Amino acid sequence: MTGVLRGDNVDGGAFGCWARDADDSPTYLVGGSATPEGVLPPGGIAACWHQIGNAGLTATAHAGGWVTLWATSRGMIRLTGPSSRWGVVGEVPVRRRARFGCGYAAWEASYAGGLLVRRRVGSPCDDTPVLRVDVEIANPDGRLAVAYEEDWVVEPTVLLVGALMSPHLPPPPGASLTHRLAWHATYGLSAVVRALTTAARSVASARLVGPPRFDADRRAVWSAPRHPPRPALGPAWVDRSLPTLVVASLDEDVPCEGGGSALRLRVGDVGRGRTERLAFAVALADDPGDVDALIDRARQADPAASARSWGSLAVLDTGGRAPALERETAWHAAYLVGAQQPDAYFGHRYVSQGSAYAFVHGLQGAPRDYAIFSVPLTLIDPAGARHLLQVMMRMTKPSGSVLYAHTGRGQCTAGGVHAAPTDLPIFFLWALTEYVWATGDRALLDQPVPFYPAEDRATATPRDRVAQAFHYLRDRVGRGPHGLLRVGSGDWADPISAMVVDRRAFHEHGESGFNTAFAVYVLPRAARLIAESHPIDAAEMVALAGELRRAMQNTWQGEWFLRGYDGRGGPLGERHLFLDGQVWPLIAGIGDDAQRARLVSAIGDRNDDPSPIGATILDRPHPVRFGMLAPGWDCNGGVWAAINALLAWGYALHDPARAWRLLEKQSLAGHARAYPNVWFGIWSGPDAYNAWFGSRPGETFVQPATPMQEYPVMNANAHAGPLLALMRVLGLEATEQGMVVQPREVPVRWSLTTPVGTFSGGPPR
């Protein structure tokens, strides 16, 4: 069951090592049962977790042996947790080892007398909401017959959306008295709000399930939801309905019995000198009538074939010249595809951003992240990318504004941040153009899609929405006195308005260099989607891009471009190099060759070279209102996966050697080498790490809203960002003729194989 492991025992940090399975897929061998020194979650190394779900079921596997299941289509509801157990009845293992693979996790439990149990839990590489559990029990000698038990404890917790979820933290070292007082007040408030949210979640989670029942005919134990799913009549903040959860034995010739207060199946007996192989299905079904089909799907599944499917979503071959990039390409693709979740209201699936946003806040989004995810997803799961675009369009109002987030069952919300960030229409135009050009799916452009809310029955085709997004940017967002697009309530950096003196003036009159440079790149490309259907709009989009290019060029400071203007006439980013304000000028080719060369040099000297894991978003900390962002944390200097992906792309167009070095630095291997004692950043991570110049470098941020350190893995940016960077550094670009390999200077011959096709390039042989 475990297969042959071939070790390439590097880049595993202090907590284990990487290896290769018999099918050549990467797997991470978690270190022994002792807790090593380092940054670990409460519960030590046993509590570390890994994603094993698919597009129909969200699940995490913990090194200690338990699996956490989530119901997600009607809001985030945690179903199971560490109370679940498995193993030989009446026996305690003397040692347990774990390993994490693409789409699965496996454990090995050793008992006294040579008794050995191997267990593997994995999901099919599709949207079937089922896990298959395969168990091998070896009872070589010294034992009478033993019985094996699968025990899944259902303890539902509804994650009602929480706005401020951080506990109280001590202020950063060296803080002034004023800063300390503001810090204590801010985090004191967030701690109170979190306590109230936790209490509300407890009330909402009461009495969601009844006692389990054993179905002898199906050899299965069923949960009994008191609120079965009903038709989704509209968006809802809270939907307490649960799917049916079933644990079934797949072995008809093995004795099986159920019992207890949990979903418990006991099978056996395994006699002395025998080896028994068992299989189980764990299924989630909105309709109980689907259970038999799900059990059959698990029975027919081939665990080895499923693992190969997960591991072959993106296969990079450099002839062994870049082993970490080869390993991580397959790994990131499996994580990105597996992070998809269905939504009962939208009727489509999306890639959950995950991490603390989803699993602590109970919040999904934002559409800017969906756009970033959709670009690499177009290569490895085009259908998933299409679903993401549908969700983005269904989160758009008839006015053209795109809503920031959603929770519960399709309930769109500002998320306590801002109602309509001005960058979201630009991100939509980018994602749509990338998808249509890469796939050739122009039929999508003429299919009506509902606005939000769908009950209003207003629709528009994606082609019309391109023109609408342009009108929204030109007429609703508009431009400030310096000719840049206005920032409105905010752009990519959610806390950007906390970095100016007058927040109100910034929202009303402030200007965004990020939006402006991004639009310079996107508008002419998106215009080609509607050149025939909306020729006047298409021409005006190109003209506006030209005007914005000139306005952005005027913000050149000698080494970098301004981040924008503060709404009172003052520049933002005159003394600080804001990395997010520089990536799109590099990609869009703003400024002359000499200016862009100087910009690359400045980014390298100030943001990139001093950092061991990727460029920091600021060259040094910036003043932040109330001091709520610690220096080097979050947008006050953190290392962001999304922005580093765009920087690698920009580097590739101007300094290919830097681009390749950045690929290696921002990799999981790079983080494991730099910070081996931090458990995250080895097989998954957050969207931002703390900077080298801040406290707790290499870890992740906590700010009043978001305790990222509490759920620092399974952020989809940590996986989509490196894939996007790899595509662009290798020269993979979407054009009107399809996906092509543009000439790029890279140090290795390479080929990349995905479900879409095989691409290759590199220096001449």
How far do the termini sit from each other?
A: 41 Å
Q: How is the quaternary structure best described?
A: single chain
Structural class: alpha+beta
Unreliable spans: none
Helix content: 25-40%
Q: How many individual helices?
A: 18
Q: Radius of gyration in whole Å, from Cα?
A: 26 Å
- How big a fraction of the residues is strand? 15-25%
**Mean pLDDT reading:** 93
Q: Largest sheet, if any?
A: 11 strands, antiparallel
The geometry reads as globular
Description:
α6 (367-380) runs parallel beside α8 and α8 (424-439) packs parallel to α11 (513-527). The strands form ten sheets. The chain has an eleven-stranded antiparallel sheet, with helices on both faces. A five-stranded antiparallel sheet has the order 4-5-6-7-14. 31% of the residues lie in helices and 22% in strands. The radius of gyration is 26 Å and the shape is globular. A hairpin with a 5-residue loop joins β6 (67-71) and β7. The chain is built from 18 helices and 37 strands. The mean pLDDT is 93. The chain has 765 residues and is α+β, with helices and mostly antiparallel strands.
Write a compact overview of the structure shown.
By secondary structure, the protein is α+β, with helices and mostly antiparallel strands. It contains 18 helices and 37 strands. β10 and β11 form a beta hairpin.
